[in-house]
Amino acid sequence: MSIKGVASIVGIYEHPLRKAPDKSTPQLHYECAKGALEDAGLTFDDVDGYFCAGDAGWFMSMVDYMGLRNLTYFDATDIGGSSYIAHLNDAAAAIAMGRCKIALVTLAGRPRNDPPQPRPYGPEAGWEMPLGGTPPNIYALAAHRHMHEFGTTSEQLAWIKVAASHHAQHNEHAMLRDVVTVDDVLNSPMIADPLHRMDCCVVSEGGGAFIITTPEIAKSLGKADIRVQGAAQAIKGQDGGRIDLTYSGAAFTGPKAMEEAGVKPSDIKYASIYDSFTITVLMQLEDCGFCEKGKGGAFVADGNLISGQGKLPFNTDGGGLCNNHPVNRGGMTKVLEAVRQLRGEAHPAVQVPNCDLAFVTGIGGTLAVRHGAASAVLERIA
Amino acid sequence: MSYDLISPPPLNPESQPFWDAAAKGTFLIRHCPACDQAHWYPRTICPLCHQADTEWRESPGTGTIYTWTHMRKSPRGPFALAYLELDEGPRVYVQFRPEDSENLEIGKRARIMFHPVKDGAPMMFAELI
Ligand SMILES: [Zn+2]
Questions:
Q1: Which of A117, B41, B47, B51 satisfies CB 3.0 to 4.6 Å to A240 for a cystine?
Q2: Do residue A258 and residue A215 come from a single domain?
Q3: Ligand 1 centroid to A30 CA: how many Å?
Q4: How do residues A298-308 score in pLDDT, each as one tens digit?
Q5: What is the ipTM of this complex?
Q6: ChsH2 C-terminal OB-fold domain spans which residues (chain B) (predicted)?
């Protein structure tokens, strides 16, 4: 049994705000849901499946707040910022099983205005909490090891930010719209060796949502049929101390999602690669097979990720590095930009010609301690 | 960074013997008689083979830096994190003591040590050797 072809994305919405001091977090979720439903031509009463993660707070309360009264299926799986790509997988599976027909996925929040959320800890709390690790320093641990094993350089990582900035200049909502150079990245302050400030994503508010349904309903709505052709998710932890930082969970999810879709990396016309940090992109590109393990540095250099210039246009909205990383969770915006590309609705300056096959992948949690990974292949069906 | 700015680790019945030993300066790891492997962080049932009751063993805590980072700014000042690959095998996610934060390299030798933190409780660090 496979989810290939069983579900289509018919509605998307990205909140235009990047700072939202005058709105509440539930309000942002609600506005994103409403935006995605309007894009699909559906109403709240049509929704019978709802998926969200920890940013929605107490799940039942959010359902009640939004007046979602017809739910027959729901799931609040939280694998950090990659949750929404996993939700795509889970929603497609639920639709295939007939548990629901029209599923809503939301993400929203205000990390600049709400009090900081304590980092979630499980059984490792006594061993790890006093270390005070935060995403920049934990991702830096993986970056250092990658450099040591494969000779990856800060200049190569910088190219990822440079490519994102080339795309963000065309996005009127992007938080950072200035095109930057490799030198700009290297001259930005060191945050956690070897990651500079410009190796890190923005901290933004707002959110996003998408609607996923059956291909039949997609057709009846007259929307472009953006079909889920493959998806996979995984969790990678420390494995009792045998942790190997040269790869991520995307080594399992990328190839698996592509296998289910029956495609290979060279078929992909556009890729949304979760860019919490530059190293996150490099690692996933290798793990998903876009280049050989250890050759990610050479692959991303010299503008290879820039739309119109390079072989693999990525994050054409400017990504988390420049555009938007709502609530420190970047998986949602990765799905949204992939759908825009497949619909031909990306900014004309970055739209990939005849973009009918896109790949989405994300790492949530912390790359070098424990994380969730999720990947999906989306195709525009004529 | 000052040791006093670090909160002590929360304890539970599974970890209590480790911290009792730590208070005396002894580093313990869990070893599994079924698969003959040590693991980190300590668990009663082996996370590698899921068999048997694992046993505490004293360890010299020596190993090699697998990776490291130096966080240049934080509310408690700069600090350094690493994975220390113990000579027994497991890679331990650990904070380096402040005195060594700026001299780290992959491959350098280091060992586990304990130092009092806020409220005088012992906390685990790594130090260069
Ligand atoms: Zn065992």
A1: B47
A2: no
A3: 48
A4: 999 999 999 99
A5: 0.98
A6: 56-114
